[in-house]
Specification:
It contains one helix and four strands. It is α+β, with helices and mostly antiparallel strands. It has one domain. It has a four-stranded antiparallel beta sheet with strand order 1-2-3-4. The relative contact order is 0.21.
Amino acid sequence: MPSIWGSYQGYEYIVTLADTASTEPVYSRVILLRDDQGHLLNLMGSPNNVEIPLGQGWSELYQQIDTENQPIFTALFDSLSLP
């Protein structure tokens, strides 16, 4: 979803891999911003130290953790002051 933060424009998106494409869990929420002068800002949040119960898929668990923590990630980002 394109947005504007100060003089920066960018996107917020999720990076993950299919269960069959990865040997380890890969799941991150990323905000990628760029201004007219070519400055880049990359913010990333990724669950870590997650114990995956036997029989539960890691991607569903990571998505649940991300969803529960998205307000904290958003509040942290909103607290930044960008020129």
